[in-house]
């Protein structure tokens, strides 16, 4: 894919994607040229995208960040999903040297002690593996939705990621949770059993709890922090720039 004005191209793509259904959006993106990578956390929305990629045999690489602290249910779901759709999900793990350095500075579970330590852990376990997963990619597909949190309420269908120098596509941006659940039910999509136990958003086991009635979808992520817009950094430009600088 030749990009002369990436911002304008992203805006034009955003407009084209708005009028398509999910299969159409993924098909369009997969045909633009260049390597296309979908990163999945195996959450319910990501499973919808994986189902469409696998069902329609789209030329999209699927990758997951196997952080070393995932729930056992999430790890089992990786293999179940591969089997159901006859696909391969590429695993990207943190480097042992990075984990050892983090533990030496903060302690293995130091992320509970400060926001700085938590961001450093996410950097080691998620952002650096993501950078490897996206090497050589022209397009990055995510499962971001506007309804996931106030911080994501303006999520476009397509945008230019200046830090990673690629197009970022969010094909489920306008889907709500009820539409996601309806698709899963109608198409027999395998999902993480933790969703039924009150975990709408699932990350690393030490950093995720079930939410309480009335709480936002992502309230169970890093619940001990007070910042309502808290993120791991995967979708925060400043965090991506810091990893690139390293």
TrEMBL record:
Supply the enzyme class, top level: oxidoreductase
Tell me where it resides. Answer: Cytoplasm
Q: What positions constitute the catalytic site?
A: 232
Q: How is the cofactor bound?
A: Binds 1 [4Fe-4S] cluster per subunit.
Q: Which cofactor does it need?
A: [4Fe-4S] cluster
**Which residues take part in binding [4Fe-4S] cluster?**
121-122, 204, 207
- Check the record and name the Pfam families matching this protein: PAPS_reduct (PF01507)
**Annotated EC:** 1.8.4.10
Q: Which UniProt keywords apply?
A: Cytoplasm, Iron, Iron-sulfur, Metal-binding, Oxidoreductase
Q: Which residues form the Phosphoadenosine phosphosulphate reductase domain?
A: 36-210
Q: What is its main location?
A: cytoplasm
Record's keyword annotation contains Endoplasmic reticulum: no
Reaction catalysis annotation: [thioredoxin]-disulfide + sulfite + AMP + 2 H(+) = adenosine 5'-phosphosulfate + [thioredoxin]-dithiol
GO terms for molecular function, please?
phosphoadenylyl-sulfate reductase (thioredoxin) activity
List the pathway annotation.
Sulfur metabolism; hydrogen sulfide biosynthesis; sulfite from sulfate
What family does this belong to?
A: Belongs to the PAPS reductase family. CysH subfamily.
Q: What does this protein do?
A: Catalyzes the formation of sulfite from adenosine 5'-phosphosulfate (APS) using thioredoxin as an electron donor.
Q: Which NCBIfam families does this chain map to?
A: APS_reductase, PRK02090.1
Please report the name of this protein according to its UniProt entry: Adenosine 5'-phosphosulfate reductase
Organism listed in the record: Rhizobium aouanii
The top of its lineage is: Bacteria, Pseudomonadati, Pseudomonadota, Alphaproteobacteria, Hyphomicrobiales
What's the gene? cysH
């Amino acid at each position: 894919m030749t990009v002369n004005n990436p911002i304008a191209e992203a805006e034009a793509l955003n407009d084209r994607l708005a009028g398509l259904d999910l299969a159409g959006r993924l098909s369009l993106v997969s045909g633009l040229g260049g390597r296309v990578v979908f990163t999945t956390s195996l959450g319910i929305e990501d499973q919808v995208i994986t189902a469409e990629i696998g069902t329609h045999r789209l030329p999209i690489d699927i990758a997951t960040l196997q952080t070393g602290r995932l729930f056992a249910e999430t790890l089992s779901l990786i293999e179940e999903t591969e089997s159901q759709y006859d696909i391969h999900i590429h695993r990207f793990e943190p480097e042992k040297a990075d984990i050892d350095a983090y533990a030496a500075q903060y302690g293995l579970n130091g992320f509970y002690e400060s926001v700085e330590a938590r961001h450093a852990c996410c950097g080691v376990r998620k952002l650096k593996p993501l950078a490897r997963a996206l090497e050589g990619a022209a397009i990055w597909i995510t499962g971001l939705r506007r309804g996931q949190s106030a911080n994501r309420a303006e999520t476009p269908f397509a945008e230019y990621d200046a830090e990673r120098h690629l197009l970022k596509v969010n094909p489920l941006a306008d889907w709500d949770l009820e539409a996601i659940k309806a698709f899963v039910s109608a198409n027999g999509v395998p999902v993480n059993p933790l969703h039924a136990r009150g975990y709408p958003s699932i990350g690393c086991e030490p950093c995720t709890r079930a939410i309480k009635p009335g709480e936002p979808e992502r309230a169970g992520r890093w619940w001990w922090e007070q910042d309502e817009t808290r993120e791991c950094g995967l979708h925060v430009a400043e965090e991506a720039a810091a990893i690139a600088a390293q």
